[in-house]
TrEMBL record, chains A, B:
A Pfam entry, by short name: NAD_binding_10
Organism: Salinicoccus hispanicus
SUPFAM superfamilies for this protein: NAD(P)-binding Rossmann-fold domains
Protein name according to UniProt: NAD(P)H-binding protein
Domain NAD(P)-binding: 7-188
Length: 209, 209
């Protein structure tokens, strides 16, 4: 499957693209800058230049699945939260619909289920992610939403706790590498319009779906 | 009709509340601060304290119509654009639905129809307003959306150009006082789920609806 990875230069994005490259799937890494593209191409990865704040519809040509793991990051203002985390994601979903994408995988986050419970700087971000997730759920595009817990740079354990959302959230941490591995399992399975939470745990990644 | 005015301390909000008070309708001015409430109460207006960033569901008790004219203003950051212009509005719509409100009037703005056409600081605001308007359109709450042109502090002319959106937008200015007068006409008519644009023009306000 041709998989467009939006946010391929992010920490999870890089790990995920590396795993995709070694699989039967065919990653297309969307990045914003020429130098990011060059580094990926040197590593044998197909790339496409695309900026979420501009027209990036060309990136969807011939694509069968999309993984959205872009984020404005902690060091930019709330304007970028709107432009990237919310609107970049929602535009990606609209483009996925236009291009009849078979599986849209959204990397979301814990806490997104209830932004009003949170005070402080995180809250606008959680609102933006909530709106993007809701847009996907209502879009008609086959999807999986993945809400990992607090991300760490620990080595992946190869085992996790992936559970479907039923109104309760169990908080926890999870290494980015395990998130990338779970994304591989998700992209290898049929989209069934599910909303998952992910924390560390004891289930082997190969058995979570 | 009991009309909850959200953003009653704003420039349009104040003018509109004054007009409502002189009509057969019964304004309830929602404001954030005690001193704002006191000034309004001294002027004979019923008030309710409510903060769009917190729980303000109490403000909807016994209310039949809602006019949302709140805004975070030009002097705050994009975090407030999310918290007030987008999420405050969307929460108001959800509460209106819960309370079976008969008419929700949203004061929106010109340019909201296509935020991606705009560069710079206005764009996050236009995105946020677009999402709020779309939420209202999809809510099932009977509504009117009003998108005035560039607001001026000129005296009202008593005549305007109010037109329904059919995909084309005619840009222009409009005095805030005329916006408040048009809101009176809207609140005096049945909600018919319409999206209007408003600029200066020659149609007497009393004849626009």
């Amino acid at each position: 499957m041709k998989v467009l990875v939006i946010g391929a230069n992010g920490q999870i994005g890089k790990m995920f693209v590396d795993k995709l490259k070694e699989s039967e799937h065919d990653p297309i890494a969307m990045v914003r800058k020429e130098e990011q593209a060059k580094a990926l191409e040197d590593n044998g990865v197909k790339t496409v230049l695309g900026d979420l704040e501009k027209d990036f519809s060309h990136a969807f040509e011939g694509v069968e699945a999309v993984v959205f793991t872009a984020g404005s990051g902690a060091h930019t203002g709330a304007d970028k939260t709107i432009l990237i985390d919310q609107e970049g994601a929602m535009e990606s979903i609209d483009l996925a619909k236009k291009h009849a994408i078979r599986h849209f995988v959204m990397v979301s986050g814990m806490g997104v289920e209830n932004p009003r419970a949170v005070e402080g700087k995180m809250r606008p971000y959680l609102h933006a992610k909530f709106r993007a997730d809701a847009h996907l759920e209502q879009s008609g595009v086959p999807y999986t939403i993945l809400r990992p817990g607090l991300l760490t740079n620990d080595d992946g354990k190869g085992s996790v706790n992936l559970y479907e959302y039923k109104g309760d959230v169990q908080y926890g941490e999870v290494p980015r590498e395990d998130v990338a591995s779970v994304l591989m399992e998700i992209i290898g399975s049929k989209a069934e319009n599910r909303l998952y939470y992910l924390i560390e745990g004891d289930t082997p990644v190969a058995e979570v779906i």
